[in-house]
Amino acid sequence: MGTGTSDRDDRQEVAAAALVDSGRLLLAQRVSPPVLAGRWELPGGKIERGETPAEGLRRELREELGIETVVGARVGVEVPLPNEMVLRAYVVELKSGVPVALEHAAVRWVDAAELADVDLVPNDRAWLPALVELLARG
Ligand SMILES: Nc1nc2c([nH]c(=O)n2[C@H]2C[C@H](O)[C@@H](COP(=O)(O)OP(=O)(O)OP(=O)(O)O)O2)c(=O)[nH]1
C-alpha cells in the first residue's frame, strides 16, 4: 500500500563484466585505491546518468580494455556498496578486439581452478559460485 516511491531504486549502479571466452573468465587488476590495488576484479565501472547499465558497461569496457562487447543477462547476487551504490555483474560477450589493460595494472584470463586461487577484491567473492557455474557452461 505504499506510494510507489519506495519501490524505486535510485542507487547508483556499478556494473561489472563476466566476460567468458574459450572457457576462461577475464579479470583485471586494480591500480587504486590503495586497499584494492593489486587485487583482481571484473572490469566495469559506474553507470552515468542517462545511460542504461548495458550502455554504461559497454562504454567502460571500451575505455578500460579497448574492446567492443555485447552485454547480456545479470549474473550473481547484487552487492550493496557504501554511498548508496550497488554493484551488479552481467554476462558479457566479446564482439571485437583483444583486451588490453589501459586503466588497470594487468588483465588475465582464468579457468575455474585458477579463479579459486585469485586475490579477488572482497566484494567480488560473492560472485564466485555464479562465476564457476558460468565457466562450467563454457
Ligand atoms: N569496476 C568494478 N568495481 C568494483 C568491483 N568490485 C567492487 O567492489 N568494485 C567497487 C570499487 C569502487 O568502489 C566501485 C567502482 O569502481 P570503479 O573505479 O571501477 O568505477 P569507475 O571506473 O567509474 O571510476 P571512478 O569514476 O571512480 O574513477 O566499485 C568490480 O568487480 N568491478
Automatic annotation (TrEMBL):
> What cofactors does this protein use?
Mg(2+)
Which InterPro entries does this UniProt record tie to the protein?
Answer: MutT-like, Nudix_hydrolase, NUDIX_hydrolase-like_dom_sf, NUDIX_hydrolase_CS, NUDIX_hydrolase_dom
Question: Any idea of its EC number?
Answer: 3.6.1.55
Q: Where is the Nudix hydrolase domain?
A: 10-133
Instruction: Give GO MF terms, alphabetically.
Output: hydrolase activity
Q: Pfam families, alphabetically?
A: NUDIX
Family under the similarity heading: Belongs to the Nudix hydrolase family.
Protein name listed in UniProt: 8-oxo-dGTP diphosphatase
Which organism is this protein's natural source?
Rhodococcus gannanensis
